């Protein structure tokens, strides 16, 4: 039985009155939770987002006294946190709520008090005493309130954290973590005194700067390290005043030590802090020369526990690396295809990587969760005289379920002049050069529902034939013949002209903002990841004159099957990027990406599964994170948000370096029961979503109106967000709900949920059916091109959906080329957008269109 706080009648008092304290029932009963065990939190330093008044401070929630309490200001998203003093293994958290309790809240842990990991999400709380079993580590633990249960704030008699505290004191490693690491400087006196000479371990070589203030020399340690001591060996031209600084990203610096009145020679400085980069920043020279250092040695702290996560290494068991001399190469392709051809919800994940060279007589047939990529810097570095084939023999010639596979960064000369790529959603064709034609239909021209091409050259003609919809971006084609409903092009040389009033085409001359997907390549014998630069108003392919940066593999944690979320987060905290190798990764805590410009890249449709109701991944409101090439599969316990980009209220300007989401797919159900309130929530500004498929399953295991419930596909709260290639299907409420200003979408494909049991189940605000794409009433500026929504209400074919699209009627809202379709008469649409557009009717799947609204 849950213990309840008294004083419920207080809720009826005037809102201007302060909610009076009511003694905790646990105190009255004389039996607090876990009374025989002293919480790690008791008496520790506590802070909060706000205090209601001076009589209810944060400290009162961790003082062991159930007659005192903390209470917050009357607003949501309030928090209370405690510093345990050292990293602890956390097993249980007990919250003794006063009458003003949290209805929805999270328990989070952090190593540094700034980057947080969800340990438990609570929804529909009813106050009293909440005893929560958790699993995680951290020095800081907090209650993060999402929604209050009353009009007052949050109020806790006690906040208790239980577990095992770390006991090993950190020690300073005698080894020099900077020796031989990459170095740079503000200047050098001459070519014989480079920055690297201060970090080579040789006291006979030195760095020296030009004769001016300020000057600096810095070193990249390769990952974020805990720093404890820095040894400096000065030449005669030393610094009188300088700072020792650290940075995670090499741009934003924290001063660990300020030194004045220095006398040169050899000196050691104890420091406390962390960073991947360390620099000596000289402000006042002691001589008329520049600054000159024989050596800089950097020492890092170790607790004697888990060693730092190492970057680089092999690519794991499910990556198949080949070259033109690989024996039985065709057999390798055939073996994987035989296993994966019809394994729609299986556990196999595979990536073929082809080293540069020419491959003759190959037909690489691709089944589910199979990717093929070239390892050259440009597609023409890896040439196949043969085919990469996707067909639908496994499904009787129906290609509408050919999901989850990809081809990238290759040149292809098809054996008979035309390659077959008969795919559906989540099957990108990127950075490809087809020296011939491309057929997007299955053998026999059966049903097909795709697809996406980007940054590719097709020298011949592309024939979509039976493809219902397709989006092509920043490419060139020798021709394009026919199409069914919705064919959209941006920045495509050779694309057909817009004819949406009478045909399927929507064509824009350029793409407003694009940045190609990061990819793995070989530089000699070393693996690197190339991160292409942003392009604006792009037209045609980005290669071979690529702009961008290369990141060595040793700056990535190469994630392999069996890796834990704790290790993944530790790698991120060290400043490493992530390369997920093919596999399925169960997560017992949220992956937290907090460093600007972090790359998270998946191979072979690597799949993340959040367990126990956690969120799968959070990205902080920072510049330039790249998420690419992985699948998030919802678990059987409801997650609030599978992927969150930016925390609520994010408002930083990222226009110069936006976060990109590319070939990141979400699935709820199909492989088993899955639940998630939101699939993807974008709170940050300027995000570019370039090809995603967010899918609440309509077939497979664990499928049912409530069995794989998922209310929202994509929710956009950030401003200036761009979506290019947006596929979102079957959600219980809105598939897309856009609340940010100046949003843009180019191409949208949608089917409404097949399994709506009746019209009442989808009726809201007097409207039958949730729009596939809704722009919130508060939005003033929004624009979209090439949008299609289809209904297939198999559970109740009598449902008449009010409209496919719902937008406010304002001068800044502009919608181009919209259509709705009834698939075989299973339900109908009354209008296309708002109350505009003729209704669908009958069983012949004829689109109802609106070319411009308003």
TrEMBL record:
Organism: Streptomyces gibsoniae
Protein name from the UniProt record: Discoidin domain-containing protein
PROSITE patterns linked to this entry: FA58C_3
Top-rank lineage group of the source organism: Bacteria
Keyword Oxidoreductase: no
Residue ranges, compositional bias (Polar residues): 39-53, 184-193
Domain F5/8 type C: 26-164, 167-301
Signal peptide: 1-28
InterPro entries documented for this protein: FA58C (IPR000421), Galactose-bd-like_sf (IPR008979), Pectin_lyase_fold/virulence (IPR011050), SACTE_4363 (IPR059186)
UniProt keyword annotations, A-Z: Signal
Pfam families hit by this protein: F5_F8_type_C (PF00754)
Positions of the UniProt region annotated as Disordered: 39-72, 171-209
């Amino acid at each position: 039985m849950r213990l309840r706080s008294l004083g419920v009648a207080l809720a009826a008092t005037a809102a201007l009155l302060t909610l009076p304290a009511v003694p905790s029932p646990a105190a009255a009963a004389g039996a607090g939770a876990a009374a025989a065990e002293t919480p790690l939190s008791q008496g520790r330093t506590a802070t909060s987002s706000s205090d209601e008044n001076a009589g209810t401070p944060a400290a009162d929630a961790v003082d062991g006294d159930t007659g005192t309490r903390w209470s917050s200001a009357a607003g949501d998203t309030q928090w209370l946190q405690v510093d345990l003093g050292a990293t602890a293994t956390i097993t249980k958290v007990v919250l003794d709520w006063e009458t003003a309790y949290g209805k929805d809240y999270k328990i989070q842990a952090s190593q540094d008090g700034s980057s947080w990991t969800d340990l438990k999400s609570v929804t529909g709380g009813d106050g009293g005493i909440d005893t929560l079993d958790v699993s995680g580590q951290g020095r800081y633990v907090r209650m993060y309130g999402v929604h209050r249960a009353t009009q007052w704030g949050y109020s806790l008699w006690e906040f208790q954290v239980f577990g095992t505290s770390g006991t090993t004191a950190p020690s300073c490693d005698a080894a020099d973590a900077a020796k031989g690491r990459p170095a740079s400087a503000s200047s050098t006196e001459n070519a014989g005194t480079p920055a690297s000479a201060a970090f080579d371990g040789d006291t006979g070589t030195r760095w020296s700067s030009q004769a001016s203030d300020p000057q600096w020399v810095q070193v990249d340690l390769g990952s974020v390290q805990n720093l404890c001591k820095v040894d400096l060996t000065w030449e005669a031209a030393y610094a009188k005043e300088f700072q020792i600084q650290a940075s995670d990203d090499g741009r934003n610096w924290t001063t660990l030590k300020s030194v004045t009145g220095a006398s040169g020679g050899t000196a050691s400085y104890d420091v406390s802090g962390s960073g991947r980069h360390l620099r000596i920043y000289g402000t006042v020279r002691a001589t008329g020369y520049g600054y000159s250092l024989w050596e800089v040695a950097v020492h890092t702290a170790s607790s004697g526990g888990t060693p730092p996560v190492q970057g680089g290494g092999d690519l794991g068991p499910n990556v198949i690396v080949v070259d033109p001399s690989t024996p039985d190469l065709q057999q390798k392709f055939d073996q994987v295809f035989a296993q994966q051809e019809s394994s729609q919800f299986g556990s196999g994940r595979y990536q073929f990587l082809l080293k540069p060279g020419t491959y003759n007589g190959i037909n690489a047939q691709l089944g589910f969760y199979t990717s093929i990529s070239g390892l050259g810097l440009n597609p023409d570095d890896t040439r196949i005289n043969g085919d990469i084939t996707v067909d639908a023999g496994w499904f009787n010639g129906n290609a509408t379920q050919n999901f989850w596979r990809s081809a990238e960064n290759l040149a292809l000369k098809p054996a008979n002049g035309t390659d077959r790529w008969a795919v559906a959603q989540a099957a990108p064709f990127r950075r490809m050069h087809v020296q011939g034609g491309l057929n997007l239909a299955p053998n026999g021209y059966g049903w097909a529902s795709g697809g996406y091409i980007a940054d590719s050259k097709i020298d011949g003609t592309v024939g979509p034939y039976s493809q219902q919809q397709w989006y092509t971006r920043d490419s060139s084609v020798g021709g394009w013949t026919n199409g069914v409903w919705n064919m959209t092009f941006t920045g495509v040389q050779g694309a057909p002209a817009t004819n949406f009033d009478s045909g399927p085409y929507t064509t824009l001359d350029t793409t407003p903002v694009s940045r190609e997907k990061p990819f793995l390549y070989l530089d000699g014998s070393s693996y690197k990841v190339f991160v292409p630069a942003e392009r604006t108003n792009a037209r045609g392919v980005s290669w071979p004159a690529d702009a961008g940066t290369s990141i060595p593999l040793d700056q990535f944690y190469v994630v392999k099957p069996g890796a834990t979320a704790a290790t993944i987060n530790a790698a991120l905290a060290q400043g490493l990027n992530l390369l997920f190798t093919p596999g399925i990764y169960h997560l017992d805590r949220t992956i937290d990406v907090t460093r600007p410009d972090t790359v998270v890249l998946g191979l072979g449709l690597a799949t993340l599964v959040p367990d126990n109701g956690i969120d799968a991944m959070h990205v902080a409101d920072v510049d330039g994170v790249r998420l690419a090439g992985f699948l998030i599969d919802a678990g059987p316990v409801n997650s609030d948000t599978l992927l969150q980009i930016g925390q609520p209220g994010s408002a930083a300007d990222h226009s110069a370096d936006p976060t990109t989401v590319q070939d990141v797919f979400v699935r709820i159900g199909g492989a088993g029961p899955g639940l998630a309130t939101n699939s993807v929530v974008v709170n940050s500004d300027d995000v570019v979503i370039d090809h995603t498929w967010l899918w609440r399953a309509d077939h497979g295991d664990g499928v049912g109106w409530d069995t794989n419930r998922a209310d929202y596909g994509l929710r956009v709260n950030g401003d200036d967000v761009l979506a290019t290639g947006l596929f979102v299907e079957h959600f219980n409420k809105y598939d897309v709900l856009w609340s940010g200003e100046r949003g843009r979408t180019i191409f949208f494909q949608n089917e409404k949920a097949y399994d709506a049991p009746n019209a009442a189940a989808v009726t809201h605000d007097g409207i039958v059916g949730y729009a596939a794409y809704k722009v919130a009433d508060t939005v003033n500026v929004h624009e979209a091109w090439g949008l299609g929504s289809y209904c297939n209400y198999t559970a109740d074919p009598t449902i008449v959906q009010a409209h496919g699209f719902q937008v406010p009627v304002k001068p800044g809202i502009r919608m181009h080329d919209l259509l709705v379709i009834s698939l075989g008469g299973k339900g109908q649409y009354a209008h296309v957008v708002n109350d505009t557009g003729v209704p669908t009717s009958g069983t012949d799947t004829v689109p109802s269109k609106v070319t411009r609204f308003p």
